[in-house]
Amino acid sequence: FVQIMSRKKAAKGKGSSKSPKASPSSGRTGKGLTVMLVGDSGVGKTCLLVRFKDGAFLAGSFISTVGIDFRNKVMSIDAVKVKLQIWDTAGQERFRSVTHAYYRDAHALLLLYDVTNKASFDNIRAWLTEIHEYAQQDVVVMLLGNKADATHDRAVKREEGEKLAKEFGVPFMETSAKSGLNVELAFTAVARELKHRTMKEPDEPKFQLQEYVDKEMRTAGCCRS
Ligand SMILES: Nc1nc2c(ncn2[C@@H]2O[C@H](COP(=O)(O)OP(=O)(O)OP(=O)(O)O)[C@@H](O)[C@H]2O)c(=O)[nH]1
Ligand SMILES: [Mg+2]
Hints:
Number of helices: 8
Keywords: GTP-binding, Hydrolase, Lipoprotein, Magnesium, Metal-binding, Nucleotide-binding, Prenylation, Protein transport, Transport
InterPro entries: P-loop_NTPase, Small_GTP-bd, Small_GTPase
Cofactor: Mg(2+)
EC number: 3.6.5.2
Oligomer: single chain
Number of strands: 6
Number of domains: 1
Shape: globular
Family: Belongs to the small GTPase superfamily. Rab family.
CATH architecture: 3-Layer(aba) Sandwich
CATH superfamily: P-loop containing nucleotide triphosphate hydrolases
Structural class: alpha/beta
Bound molecules: guanosine-5'-triphosphate, magnesium ion
Low-confidence stretches: 1-29
Distance between the termini: 39 Å
CATH class: Alpha Beta
């Protein structure tokens, strides 16, 4: 198996996990929780990750990810440190077979479409089929409508995203890598869900991901960023 890295990472080589070899075989063996970003090319997966990791937005020219890229981030959830290993996949069709190899080791998937690109939304069904085929049955999936800041170019209504998510029984929210809207929340929500699963007390009620997300958004007012 040949490791392919994005050009950006190859050039910079900083901030990424030291050993991408840890995957795909050891995703469930103490390497932390693995969260994989999937969705069409250009929907903003890399930007979402960079926003989450570095708090910055990559404006300017679009550098499409080649193969797969890795970033680690430690989060503190209820005073417990949770290590997330985040896999940023290439959305381009020609890298699909690379991505397939990683699905089974992912604990959570953030599935993105671009609210300004109807085709990326229409492809969500195909992505869900692919997930069903390659990922673990108990994988946590969350649907994200990214680029929510781009009001003038919007092509997919928030309600459409909500409806699709409901149909497939997955939690949903709109995000923006540009403004930062819900970026932290998206990762926190899946990390919480995964933490609950691994450290479950016998009497503890099941963690309700969508309820948590809705509550967090309410308490943050209309525009959490
Ligand atoms: N307005 C706006 N633009 C965004 C946002 N997120 C990403 N973009 C832009 O969308 C383009 C694609 O972003 P990327 O993050 O590189 O897309 P990707 O999903 O990683 O694409 P692949 O690596 O090819 O799969 C870039 O030009 C970004 O500047 C967002 O939240 N709002
Ligand atoms: Mg990318």
